[in-house]
Design brief:
The structure is a single chain. 25% of the residues lie in helices and 44% in strands. α3 (164-172) crosses α4. The chain has helices at 2-12, 97-109, 164-172, 179-194, and strands at 14-24, 29-37, 42-49, 53-58, 64-72, 77-81, 84-86, 89-90, 93-94, 111-123, 132-143, 158-163. A hairpin with a 4-residue loop joins β2 and β3 (42-49). It folds into 2 domains: 2-49, no CATH class; 53-194, Alpha-Beta Complex (Nucleoside Triphosphate Pyrophosphohydrolase). It is globular, with a radius of gyration of 19 Å. It is an alpha+beta fold and 197 residues long.
């Protein structure tokens, strides 16, 4: 399988020959890229360039996931989600995902993790976006009291605790529709189902 992917990379290679910046936003930029295809023909791609993000699956000692509900303008309503956030960029340097995961967990849930484990990652929409999400499992949770990081100024969040099996059922019932949360919850459910190694 790996050899097939390497051959596909060589056969399907697309090279950026020109990059046109269309718009620079707070977290992302929009580009139109001129592309040279592997067969010598030319094309173009519209891209959303994003620094990446983290998603955290916090599981408490009772096997409950800490989830947040927030209003999402693009979705036209409130969504139940795993805590997550964009990687900060300072002077062109992108924040370490593990540091971002600790920060976002505390800001969005008011908890700190005694143990944070990277369990995977995925591209959110590789057809048009460079955003890559790193998924963490957070356990040994404790309330952040002294020096607690607060949510961003424009964030309004409601915290919920849901047994992980109920979270899976909520996905199946269409109550959790946020893609990063669906992927994260199902990934973590497989880990929790297996139990301790």
């Amino acid at each position: 399988m790996v050899a097939e992917l390497i051959r596909a990379d060589e056969t399907l290679l697309e090279r950026v020959t020109e990059r046109q910046l269309l718009y620079r936003g707070r977290y992302m930029t929009f580009e139109k890229d001129a592309i040279a295809l592997a067969d010598g023909t030319a094309s173009s791609r519209d891209l959303v360039v994003h620094p990446g993000a983290v998603v955290i699956a916090p599981v408490d000692d009772e096997g409950r996931l800490l989830l947040v509900t927030q209003f999402r303008v693009a979705a036209g309503g409130a969504l139940l989600e795993l805590p997550a956030g964009t990687l900060d960029v300072h002077d062109g340097v992108v924040e370490d995902p593990e540091l971002a995961a600790h920060r976002e967990l505390e800001e969005e849930t008011g908890h700190r993790a005694g143990r944070l484990e990277r369990i995977g990652g995925f591209w959110t929409a590789p057809g048009f976006s460079t955003e890559y999400l790193t998924l963490y499992l957070a356990t040994a949770l404790r309330p952040a009291v002294e020096g607690r990081l607060a949510p961003d100024e424009d964030e309004r969040l409601l915290l919920s605790r849901l047994p992980w099996r109920d979270a899976v059922a909520a996905i199946e019932a269409g109550l959790i529709e946020d893609a990063k949360s669906v992927a994260g919850i199902l990934w973590v459910a497989r880990i929790l189902e297996r139990g301790p190694a």
